[in-house]
Amino acid sequence: MSVSKLVFAPLSYTGWGSLEQLVPEVKKYAPTKILVVTDPLLADIGLAKRVTDPLEENGFDVTLYTEVVPEPPLETGEKLVTFTREGKFELVIGVGGGSAMDLAKLAAVLASHEGPVADYLNLSGSKHIEHKGLPKILIPTTSGTGSEVTNISVLSLESTKDVVTHDHLLADVAIVDPELTVSVPPKVTAATGIDALIHAVEAYLSVNASPTSDGLALQAIRLIARSIRTAVKEGENKQARIDMSNGSYIAGLAFFNAGVAGVHALAYPLGGQFHISHGESNAVLLPYVMGYIRKSCTTRMADILNALGGNSAYLSDDQASYHCVEELVRLVKDVGIPQSLSEFNIPESALESLTQDGVKQKRLLARSPLPLGEEDIRKIYRSAFEGRIVEAE
Ligand code: NAD
Fold it and tell me: Measuring from atom 21 of ligand 1, which residue has the nearest CA?
């Protein structure tokens, strides 16, 4: 019998209005100085104030840092870590999408370490995280990354992405309040929502899946599949936002424990080289990676078809897995995400450099149910470029 290691963030609040738990939780740490990390847009539209106002009203000394940019480059991480070390803060709060939360957890942990962030990167770094650093509270404002419950911080490099990862990066408290996501525009709702769906799909197909992650992954797929179209079309729809919020949180728990695989491995170079958002770069590749690996995991894809709202009862696993891929194609299309790399204006000449960077993502590729080598990756990028699903031979 195989052994599964399961790790969860120690404390989460989920549900509409759960932001009210912030002040009582902060009080437990009695911090003298608090750093709140967010991005300029969230400061402009008043979402950051939803966090800072109640803290200030309760007498806390709060510094608001708004220099987060989407898909943050390494330099943005370096700058925030220096700021945090110099500021002598005692608690860090990240409020925003994955970009703000990833930087907040990184800053909280590296505040108690020496040297640049670059030294701690997974692929090229040489140092290891040793201390827990400052306590951290993460508050997502998108339904997508699951960063509030993972131990990963993603940074954009010149031509790809890399991560800093350690269990010390897990939030001490995650507050997942769907009310904070109502203002997310349709395009971001679509991209982040499909990102969450992919977390669940890849976790369910991962070679590291366990009965625990399976239950989480299938429930996340159900919630997201039934509500993503509505959330994109009617951002004010409360039930759709609640489903997406719960779905992305649960998908985060699933993929943190089972891992994501080929879609993410191939999306990293796309995001890194062409600055396509994390959600969109994953979404455009989803049908092509799933189509390519389909025959290696037909039974599991039949389960996914059912979770997506389909019915595999009268189908063979082979037929059901085929319908599963078709349903995923339909979903990506319905929420308005381009269907091929050429629609994103990726030139054909870039396919080889994407392949060379994709091959380097060994940590992710290792979890694919079908082992993906260089030639497989080359074929998948080409099929995504041409908009034509190709199956592994
Ligand atoms: P994001 O944080 O970059 O946000 C996208 C845009 O949406 C930004 O302009 C932001 O200001 C805006 N936005 C966020 N919340 C909003 C709201 N409530 N109302 C209006 N606008 C809002 O996007 P993301 O997809 O959440 O995060 C992407 C980052 O997360 C990438 O760097 C990616 O690599 C990383 N990521 C991390 C993990 C992890 O486990 N740590 C997992 C997946 C992705």
Answer: 184
User: φ and ψ at 34, to 5 degrees?
Assistant: -115, 135
Q: Which of 377, 206, 389 is nearest to 304 (CA)?
A: 206
- The answer to whether 144 touches 98, Cβ cutoff 8 Å, is yes
Could you tell me how far CA 92 lies from the centroid of its own chain? 20
Helical pair 374-386 and 351-359, crossing angle rounded to 10 deg: 140
Q: Does 42 sit in the ligand 1 pocket, CB within 6 Å?
A: yes
Does the CB atom of residue 199 touch ligand 1 within 6 A? no
Atom of ligand 1 nearest to the CA of 161: 34
Torsion angle, CA of 180/225/266/387, rounded to 10 degrees? -120
Residue 219 belongs to domain spanning: 186-386
Residue 363, judged by CB atoms within 10 A of its CB (0-12, 13-18, 19+), counts as middle
The alpha carbon of 393 and the centre of ligand 1 are apart by a number of angstroms equal to: 36
- If asked whether residues 21 and 43 sit together in one domain, one would say yes
145 lines ligand 1 (CB under 6 A): yes
- Report the relative pairing of strands 33-37 and 61-65 from DSSP bridges: parallel
Q: What does pTM read for this prediction?
A: 0.97
81-118 pLDDT, tens digit each: 999 999 999 999 999 999 999 999 999 999 999 999 99
Nearest-angstrom CA–CA distance, 289 and 286: 5
In a domain, 148, yes or no: yes
229 and 322 part of one domain: yes
Instruction: For ligand 1, say whether the CB of 184 is within 6 Å of any of its atoms.
Output: yes
Whole-number pLDDT of residue 158: 84
